[in-house]
Amino acid sequence: MSALHPDEITAGRLTGALVPDRPLTMDPQTGDGTLIDDPSKRAPLVLNNRSFHDVTEIVCGYCEQRPGGWWLPVFGLVSTLAGIGTLMILYLLVTGVGVWGLNNQVDWAWDITNFVFWIGIGHAGTLISAILCLLKQKWRTSINRAAEAMTIFAVICAGTFPGIHVGRIWMIWMVFPIPNANAIWPNFRSPLLWDVFAVSTYFTVSLLFWYMGMIPDFATLRDRAALRLKRATGPTVAPFVNIRQDQLRAWIYGLLSMGWRFSTRHWQNYEKAYIMLAGVSTPLVLSVHSIVSFDFATSILPGWHTTIFPPYFVAGAIFGGFAMVLGLMIPARELYPNMKELITLRHLENMAKIILVTGSMVGFAYAMEFFIAWYSANKYEADVFMYNRLMPPFIADWLGLERSAPYWWAYWAMISCNVLSPQLFWVKRFRTSPLWIFVVSMAVTVGMWFERFVIIVTSLHRAFLPGEWGMFFPTPVDILTFVGTVGIFVTLFMLFLRFLPAFAMSEIKNVMPQASPHPDHH
Amino acid sequence: MSKARKIYKTEDGGVVYGVMAEFDTPADLFHAAEMVRDAGYSRWDVYSPFPVHGMEEAMGLKATKLPLLTGIVGLSGAGLGYLFQWWVTTKGYATVVQGKPFDAFQPWVPVTFEIGVLFTAFCALLGMFAFNALPMWYHPLLKKDRFLRVSDDRFVICIEASDPKFDPDRTRELLEKLHGRHFDFVEE
Question: Nearest residue of A to residue B136 by CA position?
Fold first, then answer.
């Protein structure tokens, strides 16, 4: 009898029975057993000595079994928000961009803030799937699928805003180089056009990468449905409709799997294609947020015209994206059965460390902006930082200054959320506690939204001539459109967890200890 | 190669596609693959729920040409993107924008790069399908219930009847010697 898959388990498989429940044992020193500080010991990536078959059952169970009672109310709430957001967009399209609070001075506000916010969220997914893949970080395997899904959905939310902010949506095709009767072509010297290419390439490549990763897992779902179909019973799709759910699964997953049959000759090309996609996604993700930052950096506006923007934006994007991954996966691992065995405390700790590193890089960039504003001896640049961002009115009164920053609260919200809150992760107790990680990641998500708001609105609202200074106040449409995109994002993510393989099963199996063809070595 | 392939039939009269055997662990599978390779078979394959590390060498597979193709396509895409921008900016729609020169290459770098990445990604995925002859929604092996469990936790070697060295008894003996279990003839 084999240690890997004893035949009594084989006999009982596919009965729809749940995975044998093994509660996690918690240790004060090592948490769930993965927080080992000894570098000579390898922390397990999957807990509870699971077999390959257990991993298949756990992961497929998320899309084959009905989720808990919490699912429908939560889904109802977020899809309602998504509906409200869609209505707001329709309202904007039939009325005009005047329904937002934009004015002559602040002509970019929440729209572009939301665009940069969402596109940045996506970058953590690509970092996990591509950069950590090239660096052979095995722990990525249990979070990469969900993170890639998050990338796709975040880029969908991001892409909405440049599309709808143009005012005349029916002319949006002009951003693409499409041959037309007027022989007009786009201006390739504009960073806004680079942005069109960067974001659409990013979305397409992320989608291809995500889909390719799912092909073997679609095949697993297909084969399980096909095997169950040969048994007599199973729920139908609707009462009085003689199509079984497993028939639909076998068709849909079968179509998506392209007839994958786990052949080594296929795996060889597959692994090469995968590593090449990772290889091009790595510079791609760095280029996308660099190009997003060019939208600002190539202008002459004080506060935007800065060479530090590309690296600063990329670090901030990864920072905010990891916060969102944690914000989604920490509740998911509480709500779904056995997910804590796949996403261990060590996974959370690793991501908390990345938040600490990138948060400190972002903090360094904030400080460097101030230094350059002073060092450049440019009056306009210095004033943007001192009087558009930093100076609260009560301090200005106390110092006897004539001016203060009306948006000082946004600036200080950004500093406390992005620079101060991640510093908690220097302490092991905070960076290994899911609750604290969740709190900090929510703070970071808020802080990263404020960062984009600060960059865009506080630079615009008081530029060169005091005669054109103004303020921006959001309208309810502004607010509900943003809340609506949060709804769209979470709705799509919940549908992903419900219907698609949420974990890369073949990759997780590959990093389990029993996957080695040479078990006697190392 | 012109030699007509010998057709084997099962007791039910079905044409034999090959003989398959299951293995318990990646290690058994690995050693069995090395032995099948050394026995000189050429039309056979190893099926595993994940790519077993080093299996290409154990099977004696040649390196794939996919990276070469993808590299060529990616660079061609970047080149085409560059040429297109050059044509638009200097010929097709030469417009003065902020007094900048028409033929400066620097503003074309970002879009050239993005188009190169786009071509590379499409070529990697579509090339993977083409090299693997996918999509193929029908395959003799997929009719076998036991085979469908490869997608869960089983390891299978299948030696095809079209292999010049294939012999129903001798091939089966070889797989038996290698600790294979659950032999089965796969019918086309």
Answer: A259
Q: CA A73, CA A78: separation in Å to the nearest integer?
A: 9
Give the predicted TM-score (pTM) of the model. 0.92
The ipTM assigned to this model is 0.94
Q: Encode A106-153 in three state secondary structure.
A: CCCCHHHHHHHHHHHHHHHHHHHHHHHHHCCCHHHHHCHHHHHHHHHH
Give the per-residue pLDDT at A19. 67
Of A177, A259, A507, the CB nearest to B88: A177
* Distance of alpha carbon A128 from alpha carbon A147, whole angstroms: 7
- How far apart (Å, rounded) are the C-alpha atoms in residues A105 and A460? 7
B45-86 pLDDT, tens digit per residue, is 999 999 999 999 999 999 999 999 999 999 999 999 999 999
Q: How far is B140 from chain A (nearest CA, A)?
A: 11
How far away is chain B from the Cα of A269, in angstroms, using its nearest Cα?
A: 6
Instruction: Of A154, A197, A366, give the one whose Cα is nearest residue A287.
Output: A197
**Which uninterrupted H or E stretch holds A63?**
helix A52-64
Measured distance CA(A174)–CA(A171) in Å, rounded: 6
Q: Among all residues of chain B, which has the CA nearest to that of A211? A: B125
- CA–CA separation, A403 vs A390, rounded Å? 11
Alpha carbons B181 and B178: distance in angstroms, whole number: 9
- Residue A23 CB coordination number (10 Å): 7
Domains in chain A, CATH or no CATH each: 72-212+224-497 (1.20.1630.10)
Mean of pLDDT over chain B: 91
Checking if the pLDDT of A13 tops 90, the result is: no
pLDDT digits (tens, 9 = 90+) for A152-165: 999 999 999 999 99
pLDDT in tens, A192-246: 999 999 999 999 999 999 999 999 999 999 999 999 888 767 778 888 888 888 8
The two structure tokens encoding residue B79:
């080149």
